[in-house]
Amino acid sequence: MMFKLRLSFLLSLITSSLTLLIGIINDGRLSTILYRTTVSMVLFAVFGYVLGEIIERFFQHQLRDDITKKGNIVDILSDNTYDETGKTTKHTAESPQFQPLTPDNFENIKKNSTVT
């Protein structure tokens, strides 16, 4: 969405600036310059939005095809480890035992003593 709006704004800004500049150089009447500048701004804003929509759809289709052609999904974390021979062994991480917070169990709470 942002690409379409940026392209639309950029095209309308460029064309309206050029129209205004050409109108001033050719000594046009003020009403004629303002009318032509406004019309070129609106027309090229619509044209830029439509062009941005076409470009986004084309590249989304291309990106979707590239993503489906990719390889396998690889997990970052794995439960398996490999020993020297290349065989997989199941990895069991020792996690500390869960202890719920009770009135008798306050030694695991860390206090931050900084005051701002």
List the helices and strands and how they pair.
Elements lengths: L1 H24 L4 H39 L11 E3 L5 E3 L26
Antiparallel strand pairs: 1-2
Can you walk me through this structure?
With 116 residues, the chain is mainly alpha-helical. It has a domain at 1-70. The chain contains two helices and two strands; from the N terminus they run H-H-E-E. The protein has helices at 2-25, 30-68; strands at residues 80-82, 88-90. Strands 1-2 form a two-stranded antiparallel sheet. A hairpin with a 5-residue loop joins strand 1 (80-82) and strand 2. It is elongated. The chain starts with a helix and ends in a 26-residue tail after the last strand.
In percent, how much strand structure appears in the residues?
Answer: 5-15%
Uncertain runs: none
Separation of termini? 42 Å
Class inferred from helices and paired strands: mainly alpha
The DSSP helix count reads: 2
Percent helix among the residues? 40-55%
What spatial order of strands do you see in the largest sheet? 1-2
For the largest beta-sheet, the strand count, sense and barrel status come to: 2 strands, antiparallel
Kindly provide the radius of gyration, computed on alpha-carbon positions and rounded to a whole number of angstroms: 32 Å
Please trace the helix and strand order, writing H or E for each element: HHEE
Question: How many DSSP-defined strands?
Answer: 2
Overall mean pLDDT stands at 78
Described by the principal axes of the CA atoms, the overall outline is elongated
